[in-house]
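Quick start: what a row looks like.
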Amino acid sequence: MADNFLERHREEYEKRKQAWLRKKKHLPMLSNKPNKPEDESL
């Protein structure tokens, strides 16, 4: 195996993880609340 194989892959993993977390933080939070009908008698 090449020298520093595990270290290099760990660094690449950490970079991908940080990018994923940054992208995740910018997504709007979706709520799963059901929509209320306008007419309450339904």
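That is the whole record. The mean pLDDT is 81. The first helix runs from residue 5 to 25.
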